[in-house]
Design brief:
Blueprint lengths: L3 E7 L8 H17 L4 E3 L4 E3 L8 H6 L5 E6 L1 H13 L4 E6 L10 E10 L1 H8 L3 E2 L1
Parallel strand pairs: 1-4
Antiparallel strand pairs: 1-6, 2-3, 4-7, 5-6
Length: 133
């Protein structure tokens, strides 16, 4: 298995995201998929998260393989639709809402979605209509 992760960057924000902001938002989305898989254990003096990976799972092949990622572009509707479809199909996914502290004038704005790592065919059924960024 050669799993991949697809990151979708929103391109219809107002104002337009700078390239550096796009990269940061994509990185947030990619990491959030993984951290969401890590249950939080709260101790008196600290919080701990541990990632448990099932052998021969898509996550196992991805983490121990080449970390294949594809970055696509889309409008808000595309991000929401793809996120909902992935979530409904139980494909690991995350959606990022920027707090607007550096861009967007303090307005919370959806900026990026990550889908996978999982089987490329399953992800392509959801994102195959989008263009590369």
């Amino acid at each position: 298995m050669d799993p991949k992760q697809v990151i979708i960057i929103r391109t219809d924000t107002d104002p337009k995201m700078r390239k550096g902001k796009m990269i940061a938002q994509g990185a947030h989305a990619s990491m959030k998929v993984i951290t969401d898989m890590m249950p939080m254990q709260d101790y008196n003096d600290h919080v701990e998260r541990i990632l448990k990976i099932k052998k021969k799972s898509p996550l196992d092949f991805w983490m121990n393989g080449i970390f294949k990622k594809v970055v696509l572009q889309g409008k808000l509707e595309d991000l929401i639709q793809c996120y909902q479809q992935a979530s409904h199909r139980h494909i690991p996914c995350s959606i990022i809402e920027d707090k607007g502290l550096t861009e967007f004038g303090g307005k919370i704005t959806v900026t990026a979605v990550a889908i996978g790592p999982d089987d490329p065919d399953k992800i392509d059924q959801i994102t195959g209509h989008l263009k590369l960024l």
